[in-house]
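2.7 Reproducibility. Because tokenized structures are sensitive to small changes in the input, we list the exact sequence used for UDP-glucuronosyltransferase 2A1-like, including any N-terminal residues retained from the expression construct. No trimming or masking was applied before prediction.
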Amino acid sequence: MLKQRGRGGVIGTRRKPIIECYTGQGLAYSPPVTVNHVTNESVRELVVAYVGPQEPLLATVKRRKLAWFGHVTRHDSLSKTILQATVEGKRRRGRQRKAWCDNIKEWTEMAMYELVRSASDRDAWRQKTDSSALRSPRRPHRSRD
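Resulting structure tokens (single pass, no recycling of outputs):
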């Protein structure tokens, strides 16, 4: 299972290839695949035949992170205060680390005040979440039959 650790699950340019690589490794163990040389495309085709169409792992992470941001922003809680807080003073020299909200702003292409305002409308935020997560639709609901 892929766990987020470190700086609160910030997805930077270093983590994207790792997540995509993990997705490929996870796909190799899902369907019955031989030890022989098999291309990534053929493994993906086997997975679609074996499990059905799946959204990319990075799209799932983005969708869930955006959904959690909207959930926290709609409530008055300690987590909302921490999420939207800023620290006084200067930052260190050099390239700045990405903050958690920087991913949200990058994916939605909106400023922070626009994000807070648009997250208050649940249905509109859900549509924005789906469109921002690599333009991928929600995961199909599987019945428990």
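The mean pLDDT is 77.
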